């Protein structure tokens, strides 16, 4: 029967002059004659009648053909669809097919299709949540579970982002293709970029690559035409206003990319707090890493870090200075890379000597920090429960010894911050009593060293942007309890440097007591006035709230005022 079908096909092809197909069907034909094609069709029909089963010919994706190819396939179906026991199952995007038939000059394509397709079944729309669920399911087969959880987290945070995903990945085939593409790039990045990129950001970037490769290449090559740098130390990339205007409703055209791709881009480079996402693509030092084959040459690799941590008598400051300062910092240094590698050290596997070298290295790194990242890593090594309880506080003592040496060069609110956290962690551990005393002393030394250098005025404690306020605030421990409604309530504030502040300002009194009192509105009522409770009670409550926020209690406020301010005559006690 196959020979007969081949001869019939040859006749059809000869009629329709589908030249590219001739070689294929000639190889199938055992012999060739000029018999009429209807003879072959009749022979095929007779044999098909003897077959008890139905023969289903599935032709998928005819909407991927151009207009000429599509037209010829439909003609072949039309010429064979009345054969017995033969059923054609054809899948396509009807809008596309109608458009291509119009291009072939068919004036009524709907009627043309009706003559060929006897029964038309519209498939139900695939819901967005089903597509997203399939994406997760496919990824789980190919990548680590933590990668899938990270992607689920970033998608789940943003409903608009979810809608954009299903606008780009509209069916199961595209979900499957994208999942495979993403899995390959994630695996490559984890191996060659040493886990120094955000998988969440990589997900959105790969979605852009899938949807619009030309625009993806534009991102990699022409970053300056799309982004501008935010103000501040972090050098964060944000979408340029000129670029964003292209996607406003009244803009005539979008020459670079489609609206849906722009929505992905807008989410990826959203202007919001990036705390805890130091590997994000939005930071200029990280950006090129997402388009590279590996880490740049002047990055800290694991073996470089090992040399620093395992070397004997290493001058950490000299090594770091050589690394960071030989060339332009903004082009060549990556503090985050180094900190990331340091923080990956497992505290459970640390020995005492390695711990000491890490602390020394972090202290040496302090001069290069821009956003408290060094102190965040220090907190990781100092306040971890395993570290705190090791050798009955011996490791904490070692840290404090290194930190004391560190204080010989640096002082300020960052120092107060880490020491406050150490104190807060060890304050209730009996074995740490000696260390608790040392922490308090270091806190005091830090404040006094800074005060002697900067000569602050006592009035500065009420201004949040002043260094005095920051050091004082970072030195406070707020004790809290949970009320019957489950709310956190702060009952008291302990300032670890309170006495040092009072002692310092006894010798450096401020004469700005009126300005100080006016800030708290304490000059608005007369204590002997019987109508005090009725007059401007709202302002009194506001003043008390300010006192509580800054000093914790009215008694401490008065103690500060009386110890740290002098009247116009310069007396030792503020009589106001």
Written overview of the protein:
The protein is mainly alpha-helical. It is 57% helix and 5% strand. The chain has 30 helices and 6 strands. The protein has helices spanning 2-16, 19-28, 37-49, 67-80, 94-103, 109-116, 128-140, 145-156, 159-168, 172-192, 199-211, 213-221, 241-245, 259-268, 284-287, 302-310, 316-325, 329-332, 335-343, 352-365, 373-382, 385-389, 394-407, 413-426, 433-454, 467-474, 498-506, 513-519, 537-551, 554-564; strands spanning 55-59, 86-90, 227-229, 237-239, 476-482, 488-495. It has a two-stranded parallel sheet with strand order 1-2. Strands 3-4 form a two-stranded antiparallel sheet. The longest helix has 22 residues, at 433-454. The chain starts with a helix and ends in a 12-residue tail after the last helix. Mean pLDDT is 77; it is low at 27-34 and 328-333.
List the helices and strands and how they pair.
Layout lengths: L1 H15 L2 H10 L8 H13 L5 E5 L7 H14 L5 E5 L3 H10 L5 H8 L11 H13 L4 H12 L2 H10 L3 H21 L6 H13 L1 H9 L5 E3 L7 E3 L1 H5 L13 H10 L15 H4 L14 H9 L5 H10 L3 H4 L2 H9 L8 H14 L7 H10 L2 H5 L4 H14 L5 H14 L6 H22 L12 H8 L1 E7 L5 E8 L2 H9 L6 H7 L17 H15 L2 H11 L12
Parallel strand pairs: 1-2
Antiparallel strand pairs: 3-4, 5-6
Helix pairs in contact: 1-2, 1-3, 4-5, 7-10, 9-14, 10-11, 11-12, 11-14, 19-21, 20-21, 20-23, 21-24, 23-25, 24-25, 24-26, 27-30
């Amino acid at each position: 029967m196959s020979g007969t079908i081949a001869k019939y096909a040859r006749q059809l092809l000869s009629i329709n002059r589908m030249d590219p197909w001739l070689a294929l069907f000639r190889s199938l034909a055992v012999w060739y004659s000029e018999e009429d094609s209807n003879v072959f069709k009749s022979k095929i029909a007779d044999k098909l009648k003897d077959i008890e089963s139905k023969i289903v010919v599935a032709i998928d994706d005819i909407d991927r053909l151009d207009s000429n190819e599509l037209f010829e396939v439909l003609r072949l179906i039309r010429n064979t669809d009345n054969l017995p026991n033969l059923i054609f199952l054809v899948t396509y995007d009807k809008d596309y097919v109608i458009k291509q038939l119009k291009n072939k000059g068919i004036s009524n394509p709907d009627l043309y299709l009706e003559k060929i397709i006897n029964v038309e079944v519209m498939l139900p729309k695939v819901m967005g949540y089903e597509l997203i669920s399939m994406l997760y399911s496919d990824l789980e087969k190919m990548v680590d579970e933590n990668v899938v959880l990270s992607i689920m987290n970033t998608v789940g945070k943003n409903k608009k982002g979810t809608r954009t995903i299903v606008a780009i990945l509209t069916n199961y085939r595209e979900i499957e293709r994208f999942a495979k593409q993403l899995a390959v790039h994630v695996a490559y990045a984890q191996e060659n970029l040493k886990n120094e990129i955000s998988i969440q950001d990589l997900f959105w970037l790969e979605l852009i690559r899938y949807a619009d490769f030309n625009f993806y290449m534009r991102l990699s090559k022409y970053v300056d035409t799309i982004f501008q740098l935010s103000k501040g130390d972090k050098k964060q990339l944000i979408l340029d206003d000129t670029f964003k205007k292209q996607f406003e409703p009244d803009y005539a055209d979008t020459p670079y990319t489609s609206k849906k791709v722009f929505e992905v881009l807008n989410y990826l480079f959203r202007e919001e707090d990036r705390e805890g996402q130091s590997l994000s693509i939005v930071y200029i030092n990280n950006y090129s890493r997402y388009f590279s084959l590996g880490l740049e040459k002047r990055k800290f690799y694991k073996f470089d870090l090992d040399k620093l941590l395992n070397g004997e008598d290493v001058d950490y400051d000299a090594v770091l200075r050589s690394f960071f300062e030989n060339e332009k910092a903004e082009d060549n240094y990556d503090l985050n890379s180094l900190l990331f590698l340091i923080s990956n050290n497992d505290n459970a596997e640390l020995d005492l000597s390695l711990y000491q070298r890490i602390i020394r290295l972090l202290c040496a790194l302090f001069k290069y920090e821009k956003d408290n990242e060094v102190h965040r890593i220090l907190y990781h090594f100092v306040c971890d429960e395993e570290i705190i309880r090791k050798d009955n506080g011996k490791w904490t003592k070692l840290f404090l010894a290194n930190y004391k040496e560190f204080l010989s060069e640096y002082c300020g609110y960052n120092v107060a911050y880490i020491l406050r956290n150490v104190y807060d962690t060890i304050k209730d551990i009996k074995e740490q009593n000696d260390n608790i005393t040392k922490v308090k002393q270091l806190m005091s030394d830090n404040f006094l060293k800074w005060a002697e250098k900067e000569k602050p005025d006592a009035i500065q404690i009420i201004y949040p942007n002043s260094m005095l306020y920051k050091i004082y605030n970072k030195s406070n421990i707020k004790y809290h309890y949970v009320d019957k409604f489950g709310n956190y309530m702060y009952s008291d504030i302990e300032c670890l440097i309170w006495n040092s502040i009072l002692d310092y300002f006894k010798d450096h009194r401020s004469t700005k007591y009126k300005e100080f009192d006016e800030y708290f509105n304490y000059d608005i009522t007369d204590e002997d006035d019987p109508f005090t409770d009725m007059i401007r009670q709202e302002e009194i409550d506001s003043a008390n709230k300010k006192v509580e926020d800054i000093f914790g209690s009215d008694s401490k406020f008065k103690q500060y005022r009386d110890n740290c301010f002098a009247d116009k005559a310069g007396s030792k006690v503020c009589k106001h």
